[in-house]
Design brief:
By secondary structure, this protein is an all-alpha fold. Helix content is about 70%, strand content about 5%. It contains 4 helices and 2 strands; from the N terminus they run H-E-E-H-H-H. It has a two-stranded antiparallel ribbon. The radius of gyration is 15 Å and the shape is globular.
Length: about 140
């Protein structure tokens, strides 16, 4: 059934996002007020949920016209570029700054995604993990 596939995408998105936000919750504090749910800031939580869910939809679309292998090869760099773009837009266009990680250097050349290397690694790994989970489960 088609709906089961989208429920799976949502469950994976929410689960990965919640795991990350629970583990990394102390790394978030913004220059703007965002509500919290059970101590988790909704801005990055919903950002991750929506981003990973959209990634799943894009994966689903690509696998209708390409093989899984080619989809993975295309989606991993695409995810990385879109993640950097989203971070750049949030930081520069919307002036949302994470004050907890403000003293860390940004990614080179873009002045965004301030944070320790391990945190940036998690950011990139989240989408890659999602892509491989989709490949395994679909």
């Amino acid at each position: 059934m088609v709906y089961n596939k989208y429920i799976l995408y949502l469950i994976l998105s929410v689960t990965l996002s919640l795991v990350w936000m629970i583990l990394g919750r102390k790394m978030y504090g913004y220059n703007k007020k965002f509500p919290k749910i059970f101590g988790l800031c909704v801005y990055p939580l919903f950002g991750w949920i929506i981003g990973l869910f959209v990634l799943a939809l894009v994966y689903d679309f690509f696998t209708t016209i390409l093989s899984k292998t080619l989809t993975i090869i295309i989606l991993i760099p695409l995810y990385c570029v879109l993640l950097i773009l989203a971070e750049y837009i949030g930081y520069h266009a919307f002036s949302v700054h994470n004050v907890v990680t403000a003293n860390y250097p940004p990614l080179p050349f873009i002045d965004a995604m301030h944070g320790p290397v391990w945190m940036r690694t998690v950011y990139f790994a989240m989408g890659i993990i999602m892509i491989f989970l989709l490949a395994i489960l679909s």
